[in-house]
Design goal:
By secondary structure, the protein is mainly alpha-helical. The protein has two domains: 121 residues, Rossmann fold (3-Layer(aba) Sandwich), CATH 3.40.50; 143 residues, no CATH class. The chain has twelve helices and four strands. The protein has a four-stranded parallel sheet with strand order 2-1-3-4, with helices on both faces. Strand 1, helix 1 and strand 2 form a beta-alpha-beta unit. Helix 5 packs antiparallel against helix 8 and helix 5 runs antiparallel to helix 10. The protein is globular and about 80 Å long.
Length: 290
């Protein structure tokens, strides 16, 4: 049996020859439940983190051609994401990356949310838009800070130097230490690290401009914050708001928490015409991978 990185249980993978779309999340994740509704002609299974899914995708690429994988965007670039869509469409790959930060970002759409049967009658698309902007502002500076940290972390963990392989060049402790101290690549990298940490403010301002565009504050329709800020907390606050949505059970009691969020979104997704474009596109691609 093929081995997968820690974080995936092999029982999650053994599905015979069925067509399966593996997504992020476990224990009835939002991704799994909503995408099961969207991609009704294929089994949808949550198997953990992005890293776990990428490991599984690589391991099963040749073994199970009807196993497919989709992951959140996280810190990926536009270019790398578009490559996965092209490769998937051309049937050269089994993994695709969402164009937005998380699946929740796709639902931060006033037009889509205004189609909900649970929306209060007096609430307009403009009200939803204003609420999204307000919640995003609460998350903005933490998001920018984390983007700086992620960039630093990604730069530091790259394989920027190769290990030595000839023990004869290291006859004693002194020679080994001297080799390390005089290594030009190490010196260069240390200089880069010092520069990276000395320009934290520049990095912060660059990430802030990237999200906000040319504005000094977060505004609807400008910058890339709506797609690239983590959408989970924003969407949860939005759907949990009793000022916007009224969701009750058969006894008239308020439905709360995850059940409330799932009910609102699942009812919206019954109307295929309001699906996000990437949902429609992926459904078409999957239907072509019989």
């Amino acid at each position: 049996m093929l081995k997968i990185k820690k974080g995936i249980d092999s029982s999650d993978i053994e599905y015979g020859s069925s067509r399966i779309l593996f997504v992020e999340g476990i224990n009835d994740s939002l991704d799994e439940e909503l995408l099961t509704q969207v991609f009704s002609t294929i089994n949808v299974k949550g198997i953990g983190t992005c890293t776990s899914i990428k490991s599984a995708a690589a391991a099963f690429a040749d073994v199970h051609p009807t196993y497919f994988f989709v992951v959140d965007r996280d810190h990926q670039t536009d270019e790398s994401i578009e490559k996965t869509w092209r490769a998937f469409e051309e049937k050269r790959a089994n993994l695709i990356i969402w164009r937005k930060k998380e699946i929740e970002n796709y639902f931060l759409d006033p037009a889509l949310l205004s189609s909900s049967e649970f929306l209060k009658g007096e609430i307009t698309e403009a009200d939803i838009m204003e609420t999204i902007v307000g919640y995003a502002k609460e998350e903005l500076y933490m998001c920018v800070t984390n983007r700086v940290i992620i960039n630093l972390r990604e730069n530091l963990k790259t394989n920027w130097i190769h290990k030595y392989t000839d023990p004869q060049k290291f006859p004693n402790k002194e020679t080994a230490l001297l080799t390390l101290k005089e290594n030009a690549i190490i010196k260069e990298k240390l200089s880069e690290i010092v520069t990276m940490f000395s320009s934290i403010e520049d990095n912060f301002n660059r990430e802030l401009r990237f999200l906000l565009g040319e504005n000094e504050e977060l505004r609807w329709g400008e910058g890339r914050w709506l797609d690239l800020m983590p959408g989970k907390n924003i969407l949860h606050k939005l759907l949990n708001s009793t000022k916007l949505f009224v969701v009750t059970d058969s006894y008239g009691n308020q439905v709360t928490g995850k059940d409330r969020r799932k009910l609102i979104l699942s009812r919206i997704l019954k109307d295929e015409s309001v699906w996000p474009d990437d949902f429609k596109k992926l459904k078409t691609l999957l239907d072509n991978r019989e």
